[in-house]
Amino acid sequence: MMDTSIVAIRGIPNYQIVSTTDFFFPLVDDPFLMGRIACANVLSDMYSEGVTEVDNLLMVLAASLDMPPICRDIVTWKMIEGFKSLAEEAGSSVTGGQSIYNPWPIIGGTAMSVVPKERVLMPIGAIEGDALVLTKPIGTQVAVNTFQWINIEERWSRISDVISREQLERAFDISAMSMERLNRKAAQLMWKHGAHAATDITGFGVLGHAEALARNQSESVSFVIHTLPVIRCMAKVDAKLENLFSLVKGRSSETSGGLLICLPKESVAAFCSEIYEAEGWPAFVVG
């Protein structure tokens, strides 16, 4: 199991091409923000394998045929602007891509880098005694989906006795900020603090990705997750919905989720302290 494609370069020993592709339909109403989330999501696969400098980004884009032309133009260009803005913040640039028409908008891309072999953190090196550190909270799928219910009374009534509109708006805002946040600093700190393996948390939820990572290790190890850092109120919302999203079971999908990192125990405190100091967001020891 790999988060990226890694191939040797013919005729150039000790260097590899690392690449990944991802795209999806919009999950927030703001097209600029959607572009930024899509870019962060594409780059996370690279960061999970320690690739902190991305040489090139290609954009995958679909403009909506179901929108009136003037709305389509605005939404499409705003998604492009958002994607490009975060690419620049990541020290990369968008040099091309592919665009089509589609009933629904789509945004995503391909990230590529040429990397010395020793600067790729292969996701196989976990050892007994490692700590599992997660760099973002979970619950974005619950927040993003139920946020759409606020003005639909029939749906809002299903959860209104466990959460207020203000609390759900706050959970959505935290989710949006989390999803557009790059995992680049975490990737840089993985090298500094001797990480042994990592993956990013996306469509299979934290448990699904942890299971896949555990199966991929060279050593015979078991991963034990004892803590789930959940965005406030999202666990009780999911419980009210009879575990519709399977959040506390670790199966809820995330978009542009955190890195799950296998770290030596003696490095955990420094890693968590430094990422908080740099970004103002905590990392969590989950196993």
**SSE order, as H and E?**
EEHEHEEEHHHHEHHEHE
Which whole number gives the mean pLDDT? Answer: 94
Strand content: 15-25%
Distance between the termini: 21 Å
Number of strands: 9
Strand order of the largest sheet: 1-2-5-3-4
Largest sheet: 5 strands, mixed
Q: Which class best fits the helix and strand makeup? A: alpha+beta
User: Shape from CA axes?
Assistant: globular
Describe this structure as you would to a colleague.
This protein is an alpha+beta fold. It has nine helices and nine strands. Strands 1-2-5-3-4 form a five-stranded mixed β-sheet. It has a four-stranded antiparallel β-sheet with strand order 7-8-6-9, sandwiched between helices.
Write the layout of secondary structure elements.
Blueprint lengths: L4 E5 L2 E13 L6 H18 L7 E9 L4 H21 L4 E9 L3 E11 L14 E4 L5 H8 L5 H4 L8 H15 L4 H9 L4 E4 L4 H11 L18 H7 L18 E5 L4 H12 L4 E2 L2
Parallel strand pairs: 3-4
Antiparallel strand pairs: 1-2, 2-5, 3-5, 6-8, 6-9, 7-8
Helix pairs in contact: 1-2, 1-6, 3-5, 6-9
Give a short synopsis of this structure:
This protein has 287 residues and is α+β, with helices and mostly antiparallel strands. The protein has helices at residues 31-48, 69-89, 140-147, 153-156, 165-179, 184-192, 205-215, 234-240, 268-279, and strands at 5-9, 12-24, 56-64, 94-102, 106-116, 131-134, 197-200, 259-263, 284-285.
